Fold this sequence. Notes:
The complex is a heterodimer.
Chain A: H1 3-11, H2 13-23, H3 25-42, H4 44-51, H5 82-118, H6 120-135, H7 138-146, H8 157-161, H9 163-178, H10 180-193, H11 197-204, H12 209-217, H13 222-246, H14 264-270, H15 272-300
Helix pairs in contact in A: 2-15, 3-5, 3-15, 4-5, 5-6, 5-9, 5-10, 5-13, 6-10, 7-9, 9-13, 10-13, 11-12, 13-15, 14-15
Chain B: H1 2-27, H2 34-41, H3 47-56, H4 63-75, H5 89-124, H6 129-143, H7 146-160, H8 177-211, H9 214-221, H10 226-248, H11 250-263, H12 269-278, H13 282-310
Amino acid sequence: MTTATLTRASSSPWRLRWRRFYRNKAALSGLIVLGLLIVFSLLAAPLESFLEIDANNADLLSRFDPPSAQHWLGNDELGRDVLVRLMYGGQVSLAVGFAATLLGAMFGVTVGLLAGYFGGRTDAVLMRLTDGVIALPLLPLLIILAAIDLTKLGFSTDFARSGAASFYRIVLIIALVDWTRIARIVRASTLSVREREFILAARVSGAGTTRILVRNVLPNVIAPIIVACSQVLGSVILFEAVLSFLGFGIVPPTPSWGNMLNNAQELVTTAPALAIYPGLLIFITVVAVNFVGDGLQDAFDPRAN
Amino acid sequence: MTLYLLRRLFGMALVLLAMSFVVYGLIGLMPGDPIDLMVMSNPGMTAADADRLRALHGLDQPLIIRYWRWLTAALSGDFGFSRVYARPTLEIIGPALWQTTKLVSLTLVIGSLLSVLLGVAAAIRPRGKFDTIVSFFSFAGISLPTFWLALILILVFAVRLGWLPASGMGPSDPSSLWDSLRYLVLPVSTLVIANVGGLTRFARSSMIETLRMDFIRTARAKGARSARVVWRHALPNALTSVVTIIGLNFGTLLSGALVTETMFAQRGLGKTIYDAVLGNDFNLALVALLFATFATLLGNLLADLAYAWLDPRVSVT
Lengths: 305, 317
């Protein structure tokens, strides 16, 4: 081995991680599929104008129309184009997934950093809280949270009934329960980072606690955070789907892969294809996300396997 | 040991207390305040009448006082009434709890047997052909939306093949055991498929780890047959951590049960919560949620106790 390769390998742990990830066939195909799904959802508006249709336009005369040149996957129970609704639904489902994961990660990182860095009583209280939330039956709890009447919180009726409100609400309530895993992982990494010499050096040179946490600890726990987020994302997408399906998430007419199955129990007898497409897309997305998460885990922490 | 149990039970009580307070507070933010509903349905009612009614039911008191009243009543066994059924909540929750227990215990028995068998078989040759297949299917199981899985099972086995009923709990006076069991086949299958993936992955990795240990090498060296090494020496050791994960996943299992019960119209605890929230019957929802939480915490505790009992190296203190 020459010195050149040695320095190159040690100069960038990110390149090393990417190389390990790239070699993992399942993870790489997961990433590609995820990319394709994002492209698929983003093509909704262009396809809509290309085919000269409107995804929210109900047309009761063309209910359950079979696939045609204009409606490639046919029409749903209200005569709306299934394909375009699947694409818009993808935008909503993926956006909720990423947003709720990011927001939950913010909670989780804060809790994990504080617990791991300060230790002692802070750690005990915060970790008790985390363990408490992990143990809860989350779906029943989320359903009760989702039933909160936004007008009683001082929002206007117009806002409370809007699609935007249902989007923010579902992102927030999922974030309220999905931070726990991230918090535990961040805490564990922080525990080992805080004993390192450069933290001591920072403290000796007079850096405040906030500065140490943000500038010194956080960059060193970023890898586990990314891995944890990728592993949480799949379950978040599933939560959005089931909540929207049960009628507590994204409110129609805004489509999401979950609420497109609202009437599916009747559809299984009349138009089974309509009951299959959205669920299949959720399934493919979550499989892809989980493959990526597993690949990131292996790439970032090869000793774990 | 007694001290440990007392501490755990105290912790459980604390979680339930915190949860009941938070959810009780949230109920004030739910739609369909009973007095509001009365005002809306009766135009002759004045604001003064509404205030009088509020005072009569103690609804004008601050939250903390109302909660205290609810709590003291609950501690003496009075969990209040359901608005929709106009019956004590416990009368509704009792049968629901039994239905969910049936579903969940069948799922646990079948699911853990299946996942241990698959996990062990996959762990014997890691990255072998069988392991790859098992890993793929466990991944699929984890990634399946439970409600969609239920839909597909209904579509295939109830609508297309017509082998099993699509929903319901069967006749109240079943003519045979099968008559009542066949209504459980699809819900239990859904729950098993949804949960077996994660368990199998865990059983597999726990078993691989155990098979790498020194005492396994010793067992092989002294000439124990391969099957004996796997089932007699390795499995009991790998099982301990599987038991823990089953206990820790109890909350997830109950979440899954909510979906399954809703899809198959089984009046269990989960469907009770779902229907109660839809029908603005929030007292019933709160009490049912507390029962679900209690069941989850109890599952966690039992798993920890079982872990200590199965693994003498662990002592609960």
